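ok trying this again, last paste got cut off
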Amino acid sequence: MRVRLPRRWLVYLAAAGPGLIAAAAGNDAGGIVTYSSAGAQFIYRTLFLMVLITVAYVVVQEMVARLAVHTGKGLAALIREEFDLRLTAFAITAFAIANVGLMVTEFGGIATSFELFNVSRYISVPIAAVAIWSLVLFGSYRYAERIFLLLTVVFIGYPIAAVLAHPNWHQVAANTLWPHFVASKSFLLLSVALIGTTITPYIQLYEAGAVVDKGVKPAEYRFQRVDAITGAILAAFVAMSIIVATGATIGGSGPLTSATTAAEGLKPVAGAFATTLFGLGLLGASALAAAVVPLSTSYAVAEAIGVERSVSSSFRQAPVFLGIFTFQILVGAAVVLVPGNLITLILNTQVLEGVITPVTLILILILANRRSLLGSAANGTFARWLGGLSIVSVAIVASVYVLLTVLSWFGVG
């Protein structure tokens, strides 16, 4: 006997995807390393901060989905149409800088994963760069994407690891429900990195574009809203599980300095195979993002200036689109080949993301507030206050870090 799903669930299944995929993509190399470092360095003390970040993340993802559904346009197109040329140029530049930083993170993740298997970055990174560039340009990326996504499934093991590691649940609950912040620049730096790796501009660009591509109609928005909010909450749950698992296994050991140490968080699940499992997951997450991130930048820039944008086009047909994609691949790979600690490099790029993120969030809030754009779907009074408070809080944390950094250049602080 066939079971018939109610029509509303069929509609939900059709709309589901962009929010869940966008949120899952956020748990890439930068995310895994940053959350692991939070657990290693401060045990459970960043959990309350992650609750606040999750609230902001849910608010932002919902606004982005609503903008895309009710306008049928991506973020870059909306910014171009609703703001003047100078602000549009500034926003797109911020997007581009943030995504170039992400490219460094992703190639750093690829290099780190191969180094776990004793393969030098000077071999793995050039080969990966050429492979990813070729996969996208020659139309076989969709097949590789499935493999990359399959590899990232290993990170589902973190919630299980968080339980099997037998953490002090009283401390976990206390740190989740009440702030236990540390008054230090290192805690502030990690806080900015957590913001940058969770609410990254790339995720917003991707979600808006994916919703538009799916053609979700305003009448179906409630289903897309569930998708966006569910995706954000699940991503945050995995992130907090990584912090708990790592905090329980290597908490208090200090700043994370190696991928081998980061892999300890999976030891309660994988035992002696933790490093191998971590390496495979990191490779899949990094390779997937290393292809999608530069594409999101290329789409945003091409959309903003109104030129050809398609992976099926040749260089002659879409020189700007494919040129930007190629440039990001080259820069990301080149920076990672410079000698240095890859884990530190990944963390620093997440800090850069955290500093740039408020620019994107402020523009999203302004757009979602405009009744001239969204009509009755614009933010109501509660949404305005909640969105404003969330985004201002993120901006304050980033601004304080920037201020302290500038003061340190002059020997102050």
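PB: full thing came through this time. The domain at 7-409 is CATH 1.20.1740.10 (Amino acid/polyamine transporter I).
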